[in-house]
Amino acid sequence: MSNEKPARPDDEVRHSSVTVASLVAMPGLGLVVRAGETALERPVRWVHTSELDDPVPYLEGGELLLTTGLKLGKAKEKLRQYVHRLADAGVAGLGIGVGLTYDEVPPALVDAAAERALPLLEVPQPTPFIAISKAVTAALAAEQYKAVTTSFEAQEELTRAALGKDGTAAVVAKLAARLGGWAALYDATGGVVVAAPDWAARRAGRLRPEVERLRSQPAPASMALQGDAADTQDYVVLQSLGADRRARGFLAVGTEDRLSSGERYVVNAAVALLTLTLERSRDLRRAEDRMRTALLRLVLAGETVIAKEVAGALLGGLPQGPVRVLIAEGDDLAELGDRAEQAAARTGEPLLLAPEGERLVLVAVDGGMVHQVCTDLAVDLEAVAIGISAPTTLESAGSAAAEAERALAVALRSGRRSVDHAEVGAGSLLPLLGEEAVQAFAEGLLRPLREHDRTSRGDLEASLRAWLSRHGQWDAAAADLGVHRHTLRYRMRRVEELLGRTLDDADVRMELWMALRATGD
C-alpha cells in the first residue's frame, strides 16, 4: 500500500540539465527567445511537432512543441487561445518556425506567451525541426546514461557501507549525502535510531505521528509529505522496512524538492539494504534470545557462577547488587523489550532480558532506569501486564521469579497493568477476595447454610460468623448473638452436618472465614 502523492509530469526530469535555456545556448540551432524569459529553466521532457490548431489531446506535459503555424492563421484571439491551451497543458515551451507561414513570430503569440510566462522560441528557417529533436534526444540519452551509472555507483557505495562495522548508520549517512538532504532510520516502535546529518534527528523526531500512522499499516507501505503535513518545507518520503507484513523499522528521507527517478532508485536500494540488515539482525536476535533464555534459566536455578562467565562474553556482565525480577505477559512484549534495552544502553545498566514461553523475563537493577521504564510502560501499553519481585540478590533470583509470578497473577486477575510483590506480600489478603473465582468458591461453600436460613429457623450463617470472629469462644459468641451457648452449640453441629465438615479442622475454619468475608456485606 502506498500513500505517496501522484507524480507530476515533470518529476522525471525535475533535475534534468536539458532545459529550454540549454537548447537556446546550443550555437548550432540558432534559437531566439521572444517571450517567457523568466521560465527558461523549465526541463524539456521531449520534442513534439504538430501543425494542429489544438494538439493538446496528444500532449503529456513537459514537451517543447514545434510548429510552423500552418493552421493557426493570424487572428489575435485564436493565437491567444492557442497559447493558453498549451500553457494549461504544461508544455515546456513553444517553438515557431519562421520563413514559411510567418515571416516573423506574430506579435499576438508574443503577447500571449508573455502573459502566461511560456517560453516562446523563434526557430530560423535554416534550422530543421528534426535537428532540435536530435539534440534533445542525444542530451536526454546522455543524461539517462549518467543517471543509471550514478545509480549503480550509489548502490555499490551503499552496499559497501552496509557491510561495514556500523552498517545501518553508514547507509543512512551515505544516503543523505547522495540526496543532498537528510535521512533517518526508526526502529519498530517508531523511535529514531540514527539520523544524518546530526541536526536531522530533531526534524525526524517531529514525524513521529506520521511514523505511527505508517506503523499501523501492513508492510510494505510508504507515504510522501510536504509543507504543513511534514511540519517542514522539505519533501519527505517515509518507507516501512521489513520482508513480511510486520514492519521492522522505518526510513525517512527529506530533500528540498521531489525526488527524481534516479534518486528514487537510490532510496529503493537503501530500503532493500536496510531491510536485509534488519532481517539479518532479527535472525541474529532469535539466536541471542535462545542464548539469553538458557542464561536466564541458569540464573534462576542458582548457577550464578557459570551464568556470570557466559554473560561476560554475551552481555558484558549481569546486574549486580540489589536486583528485581520482572515478568511481563501480553501483546506488547516486543515494544517493552525494545524500550528496556534502549534504556539499558543509554545508562550502561547491565540487564538480563529473555523470552520464556509466552512471557518476557527481565532481571534488572533495583530502582534503575530499566525498572522505571518498564513500570511507566505498564501504564502506557494497553496489552501488557507486569509482575515485579521484591529487591533481592542475583543468587536469589529464583525465589524472586516466584514472587514476580505471583504478582503477575494478581495483575492479570485484577486487570491491573503492574503489581509489585510488596503489594501482594504486605497488608491484608482481603482485597484479593473480590476475584470472581474466590467469589464463586465462597458462594458454593456457604450455599447449604443460606438455603437453610431461607426455609428454617436459626440463623446459621450469622451464628458461624460470630463464632469464628470470637475464635470459637462459646460464651462470647452467644452473647454477641443474644442466644444461650447451648443454642449456639446446636447451631454449630447443624453447620457441620450441612457442610459435611468438622469445625475442629483449622483449614476448614480458615476457608469458612475467608468465604464469609468474601461474600459479606
UniProtKB/TrEMBL annotation:
Superkingdom classification of source: Bacteria
Domain PucR C-terminal helix-turn-helix per the UniProt entry, residue ranges: 462-518
Annotated Purine catabolism PurC-like domain residues: 23-140
Family matches, as PANTHER family: CARBOHYDRATE DIACID REGULATOR, DNA-BINDING TRANSCRIPTIONAL ACTIVATOR ADER
Name of the protein described by the UniProt record: PucR family transcriptional regulator
